[in-house]
UniProtKB/TrEMBL annotation:
The encoding gene: raiA
Location in or out of the cell: Cytoplasm
Every Sigma 54 modulation/S30EA ribosomal protein C-terminal domain range: 125-173
Segments forming a coiled coil: 75-102
Record's function text: Required for dimerization of active 70S ribosomes into 100S ribosomes in stationary phase; 100S ribosomes are translationally inactive and sometimes present during exponential growth.
Designated name of the protein: Ribosome hibernation promoting factor
Recorded superkingdom: Bacteria
Keyword terms: Coiled coil, Cytoplasm, Translation regulation
NCBIfam families for this protein: yfiA
């Protein structure tokens, strides 16, 4: 885990750096795959005095987890931001675990001859019925955009066959027609 500590309107002394590294280093036990941690410590003058902010950005498994805490005392802000991060990392880990359990529906198969048990992932096919009304290609693109979809299946009014329109990555639209040769 790489830790980058910077200060905004605040000099990061060796004591502050050591405290931040020690406290924020504890989040490793909540999640193994933490790549980088960016810690920004700042001070701001307000009417009531100085307010210190501990802003932490954690890169985990391709995701970003962010926590920000303000307090009068900088050390207290660092301690509080660690508590917030612990909760967020635990929640993130549970979410990943729940997603893995949901997608990994497994089927056990017992072979009588060999006496072995094998595990296979099962995938389900969920049938979907669409009611495609006849329309022009331009109208289908308009329907797709207004519904906020990535593609739209429609009955082409000219050919009376099912067609698909979709938005390409470069921003243009593409039209797919069924063809027989």
């Amino acid at each position: 885990m790489r830790m980058i500590i910077s200060g905004r309107h605040l000099e990061v002394t060796p004591g502050i750096r050591a405290h931040a590294e020690k406290k924020i280093g504890k989040i490793k036990k909540y999640f193994d795959q933490i790549a980088e941690v960016y810690i920004t410590l700042s001070a701001q003058h307000v009417k009531t005095g100085k307010v210190h902010t501990a802003d932490v950005l954690v890169y985990v498994n391709g995701s970003k987890i962010k926590a920000k805490v303000e307090d009068i005392d900088l050390y207290a802000a660092i301690d509080e931001v660690v508590d917030v991060l612990e909760k967020q990392l635990t929640k993130h880990k549970e979410k990943l675990r729940d997603n893995n359990h949901a997608t990994g529906l497994k089927k056990f198969d017992y072979n009588v001859e060999t006496g072995s048990i094998t595990r296979e992932k099962t995938s389900r096919i969920i049938p979907t019925r669409i009611m495609a009304k006849p329309m022009e290609v331009g109208e289908a693109i308009l329907q797709m955009e207004t519904m906020g979809k990535k593609f739209y299946i429609f009955m082409n009014a000219e050919t009376e066959e099912l067609n698909v329109v979709y938005k390409r990555r470069d921003g243009d639209y593409s039209h797919v027609e069924a063809g027989w040769e």
